[in-house]
Amino acid sequence: MGRLNKLPNGVRYPSHKEWQLLKKLPKWWLLGTLVFATPLVHAWWQHGDLLTRDVERTAMFLGLLFTFWFFIGAMTIGLIVIIIMKGPGYVSDPYYLPKEDKTLENPPKKQ
Question: What's the Cα-to-Cα distance from 95 to each of 58, 91, 104, rounded to whole Å?
């Protein structure tokens, strides 16, 4: 017997937009990285050192680049969660409750 068993009458929802978006994410990641990294590469190519000139601009574009990467990563995790949630339902081994003790249900009486 396996660790998880499929539920006998579990409902599986059809996939729609999540797979389409997940397949587009690598292209979006590459294009966004190029958009935010192009000014940095250009400044490095022209001046040779990013930290001697325009530190604010360098920091801004690095911040935009890392924010964009975070957004793409969060979107990837969200889409994977949606795909998992739309899959078949599983049940693991049941947890049996201990024997019921009726004396625990009644509070002690005040005398």
Answer: 56, 11, 21
Interatomic CA distance for residues 80 and 6, integer angstroms: 20
Q: Where are the domains of the chain?
A: 16-92
pLDDT of residue 1: 46
HSE of 29, CA atoms in CB hemisphere, 13 A: 15
SS3 91: strand
Closest to 80 in 3D by CA, of 5, 4, 15, 8: 15
Query: What is residue 88's DSSP assignment?
Result: -
Task: Give the tens place of pLDDT for each residue, 40-95.
Answer: 888 888 877 766 677 888 888 899 999 999 999 999 999 999 988 887 777 776 67
- If pLDDT is split at 50, 70 and 90, which confidence band does 4 have? low
Tokens standing for 8? 């006998």
Q: Answer positive or negative: Cα dihedral of 59, 60, 65, 68.
A: positive
Closest CA to 76 of 19, 14, 6, 2: 19
